[in-house]
Amino acid sequence: MKITLGDHSRVFGRKISDMIGQNIDGCYQCGKCTAGCPIAYAMEVPPHEVIRLVQLGREEEAMGSHTIWLCASCETCTSRCPKNIDVAAAMDALRVLAFRQGQTGVEKEITLFHKLFLKVIERFGRVNDLQLMGRYNLLTLNPLKDWRLGLKLLAKGKLKLTTPPVKGLQEFQEIIKRVLTKRGEGA
Questions:
Q1: Distance CA 17, CA 161 (A)
Q2: I need a surface site. Which of 101, 121, 131, 154 has the fewest CB within 10 A?
Q3: Does residue 187 lie within any of the structural domains?
Q4: pLDDT one-digit tens code per residue, 8-37
Q5: Residue 122 sits in which domain range?
Q6: Which of 82, 100, 118 lies at the terminal end of a domain, its last residue?
């Protein structure tokens, strides 16, 4: 079977549509998602144009965009869409595909933060701010970057040196392990 450019765009658009449970072709590029996005000023490709890239099957451009990594998943775009398209879920789906395909080099620090966040959650069963930011700052070669803020938060009782134990932590870790094993990411 010969795949034409039109078929390829349909395959990629259908993949994203299946992942978010909606037909992404409903977007007619009104731009309301971009107009409401609090981070649009920092994006090189606005959210509505990322959706258009998906519609056109321009997979490399969509997943290579900084936009998908800068998206805060605040869902303002989704709430503003007159066609009720979950734009935030589409950005999440693009990030998931990028992770699966190893295309995380665009925003290395953001992807590092995501990975560290999940590792901290897996280890402690909840966020441990000190562990998360400490590791992040070390790995980004900025070990003292947040020390002033850390001291202020510690003084106000907003930063804990230890994490209280989580009930059912071992069961939670087993679930994470099974999911990672199933996805081929763990042993």
A1: 43
A2: 101
A3: no
A4: 568 899 999 999 999 999 999 999 999 999
A5: 108-182
A6: 100
| Residues 91, 70: Cα–Cα separation, whole Å | 10
Backbone angles phi, psi at 146, to 5 degrees: -110, 20
pLDDT of res. 166? 86
**Angstrom distance (rounded) from CA 59 to CA 53:** 7
**Residue corresponding to tokens 């879920």:** 89
Both tokens assigned to 158: 């907003």
Whether residue 38 is found in the same domain as residue 62:
yes
Take residue 116 and report the two structure tokens written for it. Answer: 């560290």
- Indicate the residue among 36, 65, 100 that finishes a domain: 100
Burial of 111 (0-12, 13-18, 19+ CB in 10 A): middle
Q: Is 128 helix (H, G, I), strand (E, B) or coil?
A: coil
Reading phi first (left if > 0) and then psi (alpha if -120 to 50, else beta), residue 75 is in: left
- What six digits make up the tokens of 97? 């595909």
Do 92 and 119 share a domain, yes or no?
Answer: no
Element (H, E) at 89: helix 87-100
